[in-house]
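Dear colleagues,

As part of the handover before I leave the project, I'm documenting each prediction I ran so the next person doesn't have to rerun anything. This entry is a single chain, and its sequence is reproduced below.
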Amino acid sequence: MPYYAEKGVSYGDDNQEEEKGLPVLEHRVDHAALQRLNDHRLGRTLLVSDHLDWPAADIITTYRSLGAVEDAFKNMKNIHFLHWQPAYHWTDRKLRVHGFYCVLALLLARLARLTAARAGIDLTVPHLLEELSAIREVAVIYPAGTPGARRDHVTLSRMSPHRRKLAECFGIAEILAGG
């Protein structure tokens, strides 16, 4: 019996039939062997750490939080918001300031996302920034001699209910009113 057949996979014998000049393959799955493989080998993650003084739960939590760090780096590569490049600076000092601004912007965006999530609005950072960017301040100026008691004023543009909820969450109208 071939090695592979012992492990639950059979590739047929060496005297295979041909159909239209192509070999015909047979296969069978040993479901019991596949289940043993699934139970003992597949889906496992081996974590290696040099933090011997950490409890296993802390190592696992730290490993699982790496996704947030990878997401932050992905957001810093977004070409519309929070992007690191291009950095048109040539001195180390200016590059450090540029890096500080980028990290500060990322921090503020993550805090905005947290605020929105607590208000029941669950968006990714790029989508949140896209939605907030669509909220516009509009100056309404009437021509001289307009009838009625219309006064020039500044207001927010028309918004979808979703954007209106975001504007309320962040108090954008109150900021506009100076309150």
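Residues 1-10 have pLDDT under 50 and may be disordered. The helical segments are 3-6, 31-40, 56-64, 66-76, 92-118, 125-133, 161-170, 172-177.

All the best with the project,
I.
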